[in-house]
Amino acid sequence: MDVSPSTPPAPVAPPSGVCCASASPSAKPKPTSPHGGQESTLLSMMLPLLHHGMYLVGIPFTERALSTTRTGGSPYGASHVSGHDAGAQLSDDEKQLAQVLGRRVAELALRISAR
């Protein structure tokens, strides 16, 4: 393998983030955790991305919406909890966290492509 300075670097897998949506599976009106099984779902979704050498991007705890959300969103990725109402709209916190994740993925992609 030629690794001289004139050799262009090998292609790098793009950055990625994960997101999911779910209804509360319990018959209770309010789940005991606003995230339910979403965090484990997000973590499971990351495994194939790691297998392909992709960069994973999460949401840092500096994002205030992670502390205030009563619905979806976690450091592992954006999410939406619709509860028993399958037509529930995204909360403001869910929208903000999804936008933060998208911006972080895009910024990393720009940095990688500029190399």
Key attributes of the depicted protein:
two-stranded parallel sheet, alpha/beta, 35% helix
Notes on the protein architecture:
The chain is an alpha/beta fold. It has one domain (15-26, 33-113): Rossmann fold, CATH 3.40.50. It is 35% helix and 12% strand. Strands 1-3 form a two-stranded parallel sheet. A two-stranded parallel ribbon has the order 2-4. The two termini are 20 Å apart. The mean pLDDT is 81.
Could you say what the CATH topology is called? Answer: Rossmann fold
Structural domain count:
1
Biggest sheet statistics: 2 strands, parallel
Secondary structure tally, helices = 3
Helix-strand category: alpha/beta
Could you say what the CATH architecture is? 3-Layer(aba) Sandwich
Query: In oligomeric terms, what are we looking at?
Result: single chain
Strand content: 5-15%
Span of the ends, CA to CA? 20 Å
Query: Helical content, roughly?
Result: 25-40%
CATH class: Alpha Beta
The stretches of 5 or more residues where confidence is low (pLDDT under 50) are none
Order of helices and strands: EEHEHEH
Which radius of gyration do the C-alpha atoms yield?
17 Å
Query: Number of DSSP strands?
Result: 4
* Arrangement of strands in the largest sheet: 1-3
| CATH homolog superfamily | Flavodoxin domain
The mean pLDDT is: 81
